Amino acid sequence: MPDLPISLDILTILVATSFVASLLTASVGIGGGTLVLAVLVVTVPITAVVPLHSVVQLGSNTGRTAMTRRHISRQLFWPLVIGAIVGTLLAAPLSAFWLNELQLTLLLATFTLIVTWVPIPVVKTHSTRHNLLFSIAVSFIGVFVSATGPLIAAFLRHQAADRKELVATMAASVSTMNFLRIVLFSSLGFFWNEWLIPLALMIAAGFGGTLIGLQLLGRLPEKLFQTILKLLLTVLALSMIIRVL
Question: How far apart are CA 115 and CA 150, in angstroms?
């Protein structure tokens, strides 16, 4: 096997996490993206966390976008795309590569705890201008923390005409934001070659988890898994903090 930037044990953990996260997201609708982010923080070099997470999320959302493209709301999508471009460019000078390990780890740990335990307010008053400003803000934040899916879902929930439009528009928006981050990290010199095998395996595992999760849709106890996931994310966030203090 070619040289890998991580051990086989860590690779196994990441592939398994990608599978489980996608299965849970597809079957009970909970935040698998945050789980993948938290596990990356405690297993790979900190400067690789957001770039790797962006690629894995792009892989999982691109397929969903392709399958639901007929339901994408262009009225919602295009302001989000324009805002994503602006927000990513604004974050570029302050990107994760400019933060040291302590700062970035604490930022990711704090974000994980906030997304896990703080209820995300639902915005019911919208306009094209609001959507543009929201996209700028969430794309700016995404350069540092990547897992902004819960924020986007809460924002779009009351704008989409139905669930299909919500899923399709969110998948297209998240894919675009992740793609822009990947372009940014590439321009900043992130070396992707050594991560190609881990990324390919994680994306494949995520696809498999999604397929199985869709078959289990509505059959698994959502509240139980939400509780277990919250506790797991809390433990991982505390592990992040302990590592750098």
Answer: 7
Q: What is the pLDDT of residues 186-231, one digit of tens each?
A: 998 898 999 999 999 999 998 888 888 777 766 767 788 788 888 9
67-78 pLDDT per residue, tens: 788 989 999 999
CA dihedral 34, 79, 60, 151 (to 10 degrees): 20
d(CA 236, CA 245) in angstroms, rounded, equals: 15
What integer is the mean pLDDT of 157-179? 86
Q: Give CA separation, 171 vs 70, 90, 148, in Å.
A: 12, 23, 12
Report the distance separating Cα 234 and Cα 42, nearest Å.
Answer: 13
How close are the terminal C-alpha atoms of the chain, in Å?
Answer: 35
Residue type, 137: A
Q: What angle do CA 98, 100, 106 make, to 5 degrees?
A: 115
Distance CA 215, CA 27 (A): 7
